[in-house]
Design goal:
With 124 residues, the chain is an all-beta fold. It has no helices and 11 strands. Strands 2, 4, 5, 6, 9, 10 and 11 form a 7-stranded mixed β-sheet that branches.
């Protein structure tokens, strides 16, 4: 089992920045690739970004490239999502997830473990 706990969400004005953290515990963190998804009210869960366990490869939703950055610190068992130039349409609950294999990382069904989510609200 892997337990994931997100933090860092909150209310921010448009144009601002937030850094989300996802702390993992349980099975060896370095065995898993990590991803971030988000879900806005009334919408489907949407892929944001993913990173390999080594941190050597990253993948982003096309619409978010250049504004969001995923990173990891295996020594701290933590993955981060730096979000810059935030827009009201970025408002959502953000979830981190862990996957045992690096394939179809944009699909939520590829992930084995999920956190509870952290709310991000961007005001205009």
């Amino acid at each position: 089992q892997v337990q994931l706990v997100e933090s860092g969400g909150g209310l921010v004005q448009a144009g601002g920045s937030l850094r989300l953290s996802c702390a993992a515990s349980g099975r060896t963190f370095s065995n898993y690739h990590m991803g971030w998804f988000r879900q806005a009210p009334g919408k489907e869960r949407e892929f944001v970004a993913a990173i390999t366990w080594s941190g050597g490869d990253t993948y982003y939703a096309d619409s978010l490239k250049g504004r969001f950055t995923i990173s990891s610190d295996n020594a701290k068992n933590t993955v981060y999502l730096q979000m810059n130039s935030l827009k009201p349409e970025d408002t959502a609950v953000y979830y981190c997830a862990a996957a045992g294999s690096w394939r179809m990382m944009t699909m939520w069904g590829s992930y084995d473990y999920w956190g509870q989510g952290t709310q991000v609200t961007v005001s205009s």
